[in-house]
Amino acid sequence: MAKHRSNRLAETLKHEISQLIREDLKDPRIGFVTVTSVEVADDLGSAKVYISVLGDSQAAKDSMDALKSAAGFVRSEIGKRIRLRYAPEIVFKYDTSIEHGAHIAQLLRGVKHEEPDIEGESHDE
Question: Per-residue pLDDT tens for 92-103?
Answer without folding.
Answer: 999 988 777 878
